[in-house]
């Protein structure tokens, strides 16, 4: 059930994940913590919806994953940004900025 | 997406589904643990921390579903799941599944078998390189009513030399003859085909072992060569390669084996054991008989890049030149060029399309039947479907599941059908009358498999569509409210079922009418008087090798002695020889002139046969006037003729033919031989039962001896019991002579209608199955109606209605369906049977009797099928039916 607001959200979530992974490879929970930190809780996202998003990005080839161990020696899947992903992040960020400024301009002129 | 990654993803999805799921579980588990731990660190009690973690995560199952959808092959997983579910459903209701699969297997099996014949004979190209370049050249003569007739050798040679568009032109004799071959002492019978030296090179088929003929071998020389078939090589010489160069004796003539053809080479006939060159004499070419006697088939290979039109234009030009150059023989001789493949399959093309049409009809009936079964089943599973809908399954998903079930069913039916069809294909090759199909082997190949997959899928969709649509449409609330009993909504499904039955009846009528026409036609053929009495007659064909029987005297004395000694065999009442027994074909024909008629008045196409004096008595052919031959009609006595009634009626209308004279030239001259007509006999059908007698003359054997004769024996015992003593007699007279064939005349009679019988039997079988399926369909629907109205009938009977009246309520429902089906079917049949015209003998495609009997048959059987459940329902005890819910 795709509605416009969800689409924006989905694109946003993808962007946030990519941005988060520029720092270092991370597992799912780590990513969710980092995003919460970034957004200071302003964006209400189900933590679970991270996983379909990760799957989507992996299928696009923007991130890749491998199994590793946490500090507590638990088995975890770590996601890492690929070169394609890094490029994509650049273009996605640009288009996001254009989008935001367009919306701001519209809101500002009315 | 990069192909490698896509592949690894599909791999994971299809084969590592379980581990993908486990990994996802792990990931989610870890996430929840860490979130819970974080909450505890923040000071929450353990159970609250866990609950908060779950809330923050969102619905775990929804996420998993989203993840599964994200794998992008959801539909495939659904199909797998639905297929598994379908198989489980079939296992729960094995009778229904078995019925459906068997019904489909019959339909698909019949399609497989017939399509493999159509594919092999019509669709596949001839098994020669560049087969499109091969053209059949044949002679047309409007005056004699010839179309695509055999050609005269001299004309063939001129075509070969004068038409530049032809790369080369070959010829062969399509009458494969049976001759004796001796390797050492034992004579064996072989089928020999005479061909030109370039025959194999025009077809572009090289020898498997040794060599094929050389072009110059068309012409006779001191050495004789033969090429043998692969089959004969294996059978007679056990595949010995050292056979090349061996000398064998063919009809008494020393012949060298030059080569062995490849396994699949079967031209001009699958029977051919060996090929020999014509061995014409160069001096013959200028003689008139070389242009007058028409007896060879001609195959041309076009030069690459030359179109058929160009070649034909040049060819017709040459034919016109020959008309001018040789007016005596070619004045009205036209010619025809047809692609070889068209020529070879011409005769069986239409019957095969009719057969294919009939098995498609059969399959449609099968589909309607299975569709009905599934509808009934869907009815029983209403609540299941409704429950699924209520639980949130999409309607599309329900339709998809229903279609998947149908496709699984049709796939099972298709597999069983393929197996059935494979057996059927073997049976068809074995049962086809000898030489009917121009191919020896009919086998399954990939295009047949493709066809089967296509019809299987199509039928699955076809019979699956009704239940699927219906299931998708139902409102779940209604079903659940109805509490499992069908209320008003059931009428929609009944309409579907009624429509299917009407369609079945219409299709069955179409099919049965086709079969009915063939049966009528065959019945008329059986009634045909062949002009002789075949009962108790044995035909023994003998071919004297010309090398040893090189004079007329030797031939005459052999057959005279054979005939004389055969008469004294126990059980034999009469014996006489004839050149070609009736119903087996036309030996040769000629023009003729009747003495005393205007010089330009002549007849054409009179059949010639040679017979011993006793022949007409053996065959019980009536003498109409004059006399038959006597022993006094010998060499040296005046030449005499006995003519058939057809000739007498056509050419001696108000005249007694006896005493008249005939010559077999168009324009008689001083060299013409005049024959005196001494008698008129009843006409035999010469070519086949379906062909009217042709005008014919008989010459006495003693005046026109022939080394190829058939001894006809009339016996007081079953004719086949004579075979052993006849063989013994021939062996005593000439130990090296092999008998070509021994057949009861009744067998020849039946063989002459073998292909009609073959097509009739097949179509009748298909129609019977189709009819049975349709009647079962009627029964099924009416049984449902009866079950539904049992309560109503009970009430009526309780209120005093008569049982017959109550039964009629149900039966009339069936009758209405049948009548609508008949109306549709008769309309379609009137149109469709016209395609069968060429298959019918003296029966019109709209034969009133067939169009009366077949619908009547359908009405009666359908009424019986409707009455059965009606009677059962009306006999139920009203007290019981009223109590049951």
Detailed description of the structure:
The complex is a heterodimer of chains A (110) and B (885). With 110 residues, chain A is α+β, with helices and mostly antiparallel strands. Chain A contains four helices and three strands; from the N terminus they run H-E-H-H-E-E-H. Helix content of chain A is 62%, strand content 15%. Chain A has a three-stranded antiparallel β-sheet. In chain A, strand 2 and strand 3 form a beta hairpin. Chain A is globular, with a radius of gyration of 15 Å. By secondary structure, chain B is α+β, with helices and mostly antiparallel strands. A six-stranded mixed β-barrel of chain B has the order 4-5-10-7-9-8. A six-stranded mixed β-barrel of chain B has the order 15-16-21-18-20-19. The A-B interface holds A 27-29, 32-33, 46-49, 51-52, 55-56, 59-61, 70, 74-77 and B 1-2, 5, 9, 23-24, 26-28, 30-31, 33-35, 38, 56-60, 62-63, 66-67, 70-72.
What is the topological layout?
The complex is a heterodimer of chains A (110) and B (885).
Chain A: H1 4-21, E1 26-27, H2 28-39, H3 50-60, E2 63-69, E3 75-81, H4 83-109
Antiparallel strand pairs in A: 1-3, 2-3
Helix pairs in contact in A: 1-3, 1-4
Chain B: H1 3-15, H2 17-41, H3 46-57, H4 60-70, H5 74-92, H6 94-123, E1 134-141, E2 146-149, H7 153-162, E3 166-172, E4 177-182, E5 187-195, H8 199-203, E6 209-210, E7 225-228, H9 230-237, E8 247-250, E9 253-260, E10 274-277, H10 289-292, E11 297-302, H11 308-325, H12 327-330, E12 334-339, H13 340-380, H14 382-390, H15 395-431, H16 446-473, H17 476-482, H18 490-527, E13 537-543, H19 552-567, E14 572-578, E15 588-594, E16 603-611, H20 615-619, E17 623-626, E18 640-644, H21 645-651, E19 661-663, E20 675-681, E21 696-700, E22 708-715, H22 723-733, E23 741-744, H23 745-751, H24 754-788, H25 790-798, H26 803-832, H27 848-875, H28 878-883
Parallel strand pairs in B: 5-10, 7-9, 16-21, 18-20
Antiparallel strand pairs in B: 1-2, 1-11, 1-12, 3-11, 4-5, 4-8, 6-9, 7-10, 8-9, 13-22, 13-23, 14-22, 15-16, 15-19, 17-20, 18-21, 19-20
């Amino acid at each position: 059930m795709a509605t416009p607001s969800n689409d924006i959200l989905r694109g946003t979530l993808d962007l946030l994940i990519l941005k988060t992974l520029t720092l270092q490879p991370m597992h799912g929970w780590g990513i969710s913590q980092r995003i919460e930190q970034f957004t200071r809780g302003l964006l209400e996202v189900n933590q679970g919806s991270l996983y379909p998003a990760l799957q989507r990005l992996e299928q696009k080839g923007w991130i890749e994953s491998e199994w590793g161990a946490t500090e507590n020696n638990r088995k975890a899947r770590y996601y890492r940004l690929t070169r394609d992903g890094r490029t994509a992040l650049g273009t996605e960020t640009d288009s996001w900025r254009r989008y935001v400024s367009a919306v701001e301009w519209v809101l500002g002129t009315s | 997406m990069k192909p490698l990654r896509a592949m690894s993803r599909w791999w994971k999805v299809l084969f590592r589904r379980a581990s993908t799921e486990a990994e996802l579980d792990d990931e989610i588990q870890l996430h929840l643990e860490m979130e819970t731990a974080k909450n505890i660190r923040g000071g929450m009690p353990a159970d609250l921390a866990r609950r908060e973690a779950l809330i923050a995560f969102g619905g775990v199952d929804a996420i998993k579903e989203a993840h599964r959808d994200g794998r992008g092959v959801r539909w495939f997983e659904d199909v797998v799941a639905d297929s598994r579910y379908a198989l489980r459903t079939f296992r729960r209701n094995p009778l229904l599944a078995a019925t459906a699969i068997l019904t489909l297997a019959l339909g698909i099996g019949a399609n497989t078998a017939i399509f493999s014949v159509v594919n092999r004979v019509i669709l596949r190209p001839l098994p020669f390189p560049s087969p499109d370049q091969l053209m059949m050249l044949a002679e047309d003569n409007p005056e004699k009513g010839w179309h695509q007739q055999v050609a005269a050798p001299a004309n063939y040679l001129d075509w070969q030399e004068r038409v530049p568009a032809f790369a080369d032109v070959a010829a062969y004799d399509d009458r494969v003859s049976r001759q004796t071959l001796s390797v050492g002492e034992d004579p064996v019978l072989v089928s020999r085909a005479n061909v030109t030296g370039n025959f194999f090179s025009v077809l572009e088929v090289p020898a498997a072992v040794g060599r094929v003929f050389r072009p110059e071998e068309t012409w006779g020389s001191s050495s004789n060569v033969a090429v043998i078939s692969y089959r004969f090589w294996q059978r007679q010489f056990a595949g010995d390669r050292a056979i090349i160069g061996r000398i064998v004796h063919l009809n008494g003539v020393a012949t060298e084996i030059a080569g062995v053809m490849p396994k699949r080479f079967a031209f001009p006939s699958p029977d051919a054991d060996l090929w020999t060159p014509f061995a014409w004499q160069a001096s013959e070419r200028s003689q008139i008989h070389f242009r007058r006697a028409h007896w060879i088939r001609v195959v041309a290979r076009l030069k690459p890049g030359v179109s058929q039109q160009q070649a034909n234009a040049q060819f017709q030009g040459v034919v016109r030149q020959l008309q001018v150059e040789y007016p005596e023989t070619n004045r009205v001789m036209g010619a025809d060029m047809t692609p070889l493949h068209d020529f070879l399959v011409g005769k069986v093309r239409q019957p095969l399309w009719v057969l294919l049409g009939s098995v498609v009809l059969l399959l449609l009936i099968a589909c309607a039947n299975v569709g009905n079964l599934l509808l009934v089943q869907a009815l029983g599973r209403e609540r299941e479907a409704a429950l699924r809908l209520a639980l949130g399954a999409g309607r599309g998903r329900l339709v998809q599941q229903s279609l998947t079930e149908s496709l699984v069913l049709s796939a099972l039916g298709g597999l069983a059908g393929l197996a059935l069809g494979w057996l059927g294909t073997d049976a068809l090759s074995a049962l086809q009358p000898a030489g009917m199909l121009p191919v020896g082997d009919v086998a399954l190949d990939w295009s047949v498999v493709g066809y089967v997959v296509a019809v299987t899928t199509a039928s699955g969709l076809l019979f699956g569509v009704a239940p699927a649509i219906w299931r998708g449409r139902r409102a779940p609330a209604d079903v659940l409210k109805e509490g499992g009993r069908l209320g008003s909504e059931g009428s929609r499904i009944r309409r579907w079922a009624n429509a299917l039955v009407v369609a079945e009846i219409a299709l069955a009528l179409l099919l049965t009418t086709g079969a009915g026409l063939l049966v009528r036609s065959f019945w008329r053929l059986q009634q045909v008087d062949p002009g002789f009495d075949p009962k108790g007659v044995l035909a023994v064909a003998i071919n004297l090798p010309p090398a040893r029987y090189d004079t007329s005297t030797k031939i005459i004395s052999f057959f005279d002695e054979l005939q004389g000694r055969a008469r004294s065999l126990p059980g034999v009442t009469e014996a006489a020889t004839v050149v070609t027994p009736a119903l087996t074909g036309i030996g040769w024909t000629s023009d003729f002139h009747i003495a005393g008629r205007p010089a330009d008045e002549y007849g054409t196409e009179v059949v010639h046969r040679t017979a011993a004096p006793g022949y007409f008595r053996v065959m019980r052919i009536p003498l109409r006037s004059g006399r038959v031959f006597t022993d006094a009609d010998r060499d040296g006595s005046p030449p005499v003729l006995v003519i058939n009634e057809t000739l007498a009626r056509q050419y001696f209308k108000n005249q007694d033919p006896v005493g008249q004279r005939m010559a077999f030239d168009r324009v008689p001259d001083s060299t013409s031989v005049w024959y005196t007509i001494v008698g008129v006999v009843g006409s035999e059908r010469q070519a086949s039962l379906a062909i009217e007698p042709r005008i014919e003359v008989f010459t006495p054997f003693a005046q026109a001896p022939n080394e190829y004769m058939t001894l006809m024996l009339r016996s007081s015992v079953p004719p086949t019991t004579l075979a052993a003593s006849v063989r013994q007699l021939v062996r005593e007279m000439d130990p090296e002579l092999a008998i070509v064939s021994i057949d009861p005349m009744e067998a020849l009679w039946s063989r002459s209608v073998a292909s009609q019988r073959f097509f009739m039997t097949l179509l009748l079988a298909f129609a019977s199955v189709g009819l049975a399926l349709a009647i079962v369909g009627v029964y099924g629907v009416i049984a449902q109606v009866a079950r539904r109205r049992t309560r109503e009938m009970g009430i009526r009977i309780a209120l005093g209605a008569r049982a017959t009246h109550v039964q009629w309520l149900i039966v009339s429902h069936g009758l209405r369906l049948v009548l609508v089906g008949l109306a549709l079917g008769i309309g379609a049949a009137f149109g469709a049977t016209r395609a069968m015209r060429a298959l019918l003998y003296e029966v019109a495609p709209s034969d009133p009797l067939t169009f009366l009997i077949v619908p009547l048959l359908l009405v009666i059987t359908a009424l019986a099928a409707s009455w059965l459940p009606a009677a059962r329902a009306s006999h139920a005890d009203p007290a019981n039916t009223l109590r049951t819910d």
